[in-house]
Each structure stands twice: as structure tokens, then as C-alpha cells.
């Protein structure tokens, strides 16, 4: 994607108060960290970008994805992947069915699911019930599910914070590497200076 993710004077207000105002462009393959105190509006900013902002807020400015204005598009029309700290897998679906959930129609489901599992060291886990996975394993499946949906940008809301140091480093390498390979712009909300440093790029401080 050539133009990346542009937040054009994107401003979120609650009544007369401005909660967050950001004016920036995240280039394809670039990871920009968002840091700020609790309650500063980091998660609310991500909600505005994916189109799920609560009605208590008003939004000004624009979100442009690959040069396309998506500000008023419904969330499913935006093709933005998001990963949360406590991302839940669908409990009634197997690991493989969770991974296949976001695949485009006509995709080679079996091959893509197997490749995704192999990529995160979970070969043979396809038939498993997600409840039988560790936290780190669930996080890897959630990450691959997001990537398989072929998003045009990634938003990560503290996705590594429940993982131990080794897993955290592995997940960062995987997700940042994928983003670079595919030229995806990434916004990473984190409280952790190490995450921001590993992202190697700019930090936007809010609040
Ligand atoms: N649906 C909502 N309706 C009204 N106010 C909300 C809503 N969601 C969040 N808020 C308020 O908006 C502010 C920003 O919340 P947000 O969750 O974006 O902060 P944050 O920076 O992500 O915090 P944390 O680091 O603790 O996750 C807070 O004051 C919060 O109480």
C-alpha cells in the first residue's frame, strides 16, 4: 500500500473537551508507538480509526487508508486489523476454524491455516479447542487470524503485555517483520518503552 495510514487532524471530543488530537501519517511498513497515561484516550483513538467510536464522543478530521477516506465507512469496509491484549478466540470453534474465520472467499483455507500454524510453531494444533491453549499460544493464534484477514493496516492495543519476555520478543519480531514485508502501516499502543524501542520508530505521546 503506497500511502500508508493518514490521520488528518483527527480529533476526538467529549462534550466541549478535546480528548485526543493527532495529525500524522504512518508510512507503509512503519511502526509508530502511541504512549500516554491511563485514560489519555489511546484505545479510544484506535476505536475512531477502526470505526467503532462510542456515541459519547464526536469525531473531527479524517482517516485515510491508502489515500482512501474511510472516516465514515462502517468498520467492516475499512480492512484494518486490530489486536487487543485479551483478544479472545471464538470458544466454540477449533483453532483452525478460528484462523479461517477472516479468510477471503475462495482462499486456499487448508494450506493457509497450516502455514499460519507452522509460522508460529503450532503445527498440529488445528483441531484443538482454544480453551486448551496457553495464553501465549492463544496470542499467536489471534495474531495469525488478524494477518490472514489481509488487512491494509494494523492496530495493536498492548497485544504483548501478558506474555513473558521471550514470547514478547518473538511476537514483536513476527508482527513487525510481517508488517514490513507486506508494507502495512502499524500503530502500537504500549506502556512499555522496550516495545516502543523494538518498534524502532516514532512515538506519539498523548495525554
Ligand atoms: N464508551 C465510552 N463512553 C464514555 N467515555 C469513555 C468510553 N470509553 C472510554 N471512555 C473514557 O475516555 C477516556 C479515554 O479512555 P481510553 O480507554 O481510550 O484510555 P487509554 O489511554 O486507552 O487508557 P488505558 O491505558 O488505561 O487503557 C477515559 O476517561 C475513559 O473513561
UniProtKB/TrEMBL annotation:
SUPFAM superfamilies given in the database record: P-loop containing nucleoside triphosphate hydrolases
InterPro entries membership: AAA+_ATPase (IPR003593), ABC_SmlMolc_Importer (IPR050093), ABC_transporter-like_ATP-bd (IPR003439), P-loop_NTPase (IPR027417)
GO molecular function, one term: ATP binding
The organism's place on the tree of life at top rank: Bacteria
Domain spans labelled ABC transporter: 2-206
Pfam families the record matches: ABC_tran
Keywords: ATP-binding, Nucleotide-binding, Transport
Name this polypeptide is given: ATP-binding cassette domain-containing protein
Amino acid at each position: 500500500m503506497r500511502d500508508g495510514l493518514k490521520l488528518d487532524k483527527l480529533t476526538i471530543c467529549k462534550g466541549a473537551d478535546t480528548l485526543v488530537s493527532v495529525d500524522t501519517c504512518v508510512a507503509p511498513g512503519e511502526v509508530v508507538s502511541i504512549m500516554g497515561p491511563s485514560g489519555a484516550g489511546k484505545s479510544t483513538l484506535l476505536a475512531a480509526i477502526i470505526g467503532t467510536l462510542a456515541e459519547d464522543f464526536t469525531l473531527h478530521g479524517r482517516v485515510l487508508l491508502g489515500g482512501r477516506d474511510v472516516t465514515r465507512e462502517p468498520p467492516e469496509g475499512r480492512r484494518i486489523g486490530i489486536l487487543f491484549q485479551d483478544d479472545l478466540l471464538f470458544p466454540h470453534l477449533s483453532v483452525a476454524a478460528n484462523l479461517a474465520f477472516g479468510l477471503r472467499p475462495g482462499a486456499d483455507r487448508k494450506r493457509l491455516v497450516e502455514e499460519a500454524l507452522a509460522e508460529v510453531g503450532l503445527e498440529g494444533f488445528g483441531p484443538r479447542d482454544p480453551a486448551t491453549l496457553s495464553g501465549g499460544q492463544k496470542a499467536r493464534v489471534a495474531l495469525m487470524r488478524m494477518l490472514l484477514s489481509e488487512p491494509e493496516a494494523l492496530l495493536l492495543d498492548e497485544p504483548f503485555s501478558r506474555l513473558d519476555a521471550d514470547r514478547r520478543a518473538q511476537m514483536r519480531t513476527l508482527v513487525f517483520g510481517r508488517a514490513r514485508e507486506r508494507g502495512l502501516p502499524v500503530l502500537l499502543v504500549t506502556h512499555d518503552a522496550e516495545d516502543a524501542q523494538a518498534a524502532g520508530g516514532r512515538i506519539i505521546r498523548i495525554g
